[in-house]
């Protein structure tokens, strides 16, 4: 990481911003531990990683190797045992934490970039710092009181951020958040889903709708189920990015609970949420997402390829 930090501080102009982006991805990406919509319990993460560190795993691999008799199995175990003996762990929780800590160690030196002449580099540096400082990601419960006034901010992005942070804090350590405050937070998330702003975060390809949906699913007890359902319905048909295809499949199942009648309806006969979902899929930049749900779409009597969806939606698609 020190090599990348040196490039960011004094490398070629064209490489500095990209290097800061790479440092951010190394610190807070590549693993489900970084599902920041529900916050990062760093202390819990460290405890879990310690249980699968090389000191704990090496004796186990040595026992497995001693008992193995099949040549291919022994070869595989010997390779992993050597990796662990060198001070590594095959467990993603451990390796992701090493990356997180390596970037964290470089932060003091990178602070100088907040005063750099390059505005984009300053922004990228602030973004990296936020992953280690943002209340809604790693903050203590004592910050909840300071966050609450921002639910009434003029900027809708600020209101969304405050609502998200409060819910994360409540989930992380049981910060007491009354039903009224939770309801206010849900209202702001609903408003953000209905009137989305431009890319709010690099996380999850900037998918605001997916971010809001996961935040709502992480709500602690006390929120009004009807209000939560309303907020979820505003997110459900919007497919911007879906790493594993699970959001897409869930949206299809909820918005199309039964096969379409015969003959199939026109696109304009569908309800607005159904139109939105099929329109988002038709124009999605990753065709594999449609392929991952093709069987379900076919069973429902819906177009099940991107080409067929584009033809079905045609010129009727609404933004």
Written description of the protein model:
The chain is an all-alpha fold and 319 residues long. Helices cover 63% and strands 0% of the residues. The protein is built from 18 helices and no strands.
Structural class: mainly alpha
The count of helical stretches stands at 18
User: Alpha-carbon distance between the termini?
Assistant: 43 Å
State mean pLDDT (0 to 100 scale).
86
* Total beta-strand segments: 0
Assign a percent range to the helix content: 55-70%
Strand content: under 5%
What is the 3D form?
globular
Q: Can you write the helix and strand succession as a string?
A: HHHHHHHHHHHHHHHHHH
What Rg do the Cα atoms give?
Answer: 23 Å
Largest sheet: none
Identify low-pLDDT runs. none
